[in-house]
Specification:
The chain contains eleven helices and 21 strands. It has helices at about 15-25, 65-80, 100-115, 125-130, 150-165, 210-215, 235-240, 290-300, 300-320, 325-330, 385-400, and strands at about 5-10, 30-35, 50, 85, 90-95, 120-125, 140, 145-150, 165-170, 175-180, 185-190, 195-200, 200-205, 225-235, 245-250, 260-265, 270, 275, 345-355, 365-370, 375-380. The strands form four sheets. Strands 5, 6, 7, 14, 15, 16, 17, 18 and 19 form a nine-stranded mixed beta sheet that branches. Strand 11 and strand 12 (about 195-200) form a beta hairpin.
């Protein structure tokens, strides 16, 4: 019997975790990871703030809630086993206005339903015990929320894949995906010079997930709309004002968590990210503009429906993108000692946000099964936290459908 081949498109943390899980579960299977970039973890994984989310926000029973809880346990164990950074610095979600307090109470109840370890509601006077320089009326404290280095984890996953006999094929932009007569899948590079035959194929293409899925015969929806998240770095002399993570109470209408303070594993502190519409799929700068992408976005009715509902929020986010003072105005409410003069512009990430034709922002993870192809259509935060659990979820489905399953 010939060796079974399973292909994975995408060398971000979800794709690499999935390839690793398949290689571990099915020794002897040839696992091939394909990516158009020359390195792993170039896009969402490499621009991640490094937070290991504990599961506070996600709807109980959803894939996000289930896989986040499982993912934290797997990731913690993996990091400790491999000597990778993992620091349970803790998180405060802070209400600064009276109208936020009921939303904070609902968030606390949600966290309890999701069995977030150690989570508790704290009063104003207790906030300073956790974060001496934070301010607010009340807060939810998650002591086991952690920070890590997702790029280092992704690189470790890649080494695991290769150690198990798998292959990481970089510089392979996917141009076509077609079904062969024997039921296998052929993946052809954009220049037509490279071809991979796979018995099963998993698509973890992140920012390009809808486009790559359509190559495999999937439908157009949900559509990926890129949102750029910009960060500020706190000057070193003020970085000591933040011990761990300080977050606002999120607006339940959006999947974004709002501008917050994040300690990194290197000791630096970031503020951000905001969320502004990017003008290119990989538009990390305001000046990155892809006219074809803009035309595609403009032709999608979901974007216009989203804009009509939330144009005020979009305008506020754009003001923050253009002005450091406007950006920091909201953040100062949480840590008053850090203002516009205490930060410098840092990098940015681009979030692959799935959007429905009706203008709805798709919140949960979305995975489609298309015969021999499995397509991850939406994997926003906490996908990095959940990566090893997402990998288990996908591997079980893929190997069950495998001829050798």
């Amino acid at each position: 019997m010939s060796e079974e081949t399973i292909g994975v498109v995408g060398a971000g943390i979800v794709g690499l975790a999935t390839a690793r899980e398949i290689a571990v579960r099915r020794p002897g299977t040839r696992v091939v990871v394909l990516d158009k970039e020359r390195e792993v973890a170039v896009h969402q994984t490499g621009h991640n703030s490094g937070v290991v989310h504990a599961g506070i926000y996600y709807r109980p029973g959803s894939l996000k809630a289930t896989l986040c809880t499982r993912g934290v346990a797997l990731l913690r164990e993996y990091c400790r086993d491999r000597g990778l950074p993992y620091d349970e610095c803790g998180k405060l979600v802070v209400a600064v206005t009276p109208d936020e307090v009921p939303r904070l109470e609902a968030l606390h109840a949600n966290a309890l339903r999701n069995r977030v370890p150690g989570v508790r509601r704290i009063a104003r006077e207790e906030i300073h015990e956790v974060e001496p320089h934070a301010a607010g009326l009340a807060a939810v404290h998650s002591p086991h929320t952690a920070i890590t280095d997702y790029t280092a984890i992704a690189r470790s996953f890649a080494r695991d894949v290769e150690a198990a006999g798998g292959e990481i094929r970089l510089g392979f932009p996917v141009g076509r995906i077609r079904r062969a007569a024997d039921g296998s899948v052929e993946v052809i590079s954009r220049d037509g010079k490279s071809l991979i035959h796979a018995d099963r194929l998993v698509l973890c293409a992140g920012l390009q997930s809808d486009r790559v899925a359509r190559l495999a015969g999937d439908g157009a929806d949900p559509r990926i709309v890129p949102f750029r998240g910009e960060y500020m770095t706190v000057r070193p002399e003020k970085a000591g004002l933040v011990r761990g993570l300080v977050y606002p109470v999120p607006d339940p209408r959006y999947p974004f968590l709002g501008v917050h303070f994040t300690r990194r594993v290197d000791g630096s502190v970031e503020v951000g990210p905001n969320a502004v519409l990017a003008f290119a799929r990989e538009g990390y700068r305001l000046t990155d503009v892809d006219p074809r992408e803009l035309a595609r976005v403009a032709a999608f009715p979901g974007v216009w429906r989203l804009a009509r509902q939330h144009w005020r929020t979009g305008a506020r986010e754009m003001r923050g993108s253009l002005s450091v003072s406007a950006y920091m105005k909201a953040a100062e409410a949480y840590v008053p000692g850090i203002g516009a003069r205490d930060v410098t512009r840092a990098g940015a990430g681009v979030r692959a946000q799935a959007l429905g034709r009706d203008g709805s922002l798709v919140d949960d993870f979305v995975v489609h099964h298309l015969g021999p192809v499995t397509a991850v259509r939406n994997a926003p935060s906490p996908a990095a936290t959940s990566s090893m659990a997402i990998a288990e979820h996908i591997a079980e489905a893929v190997l069950e459908r495998s001829p050798s399953g």
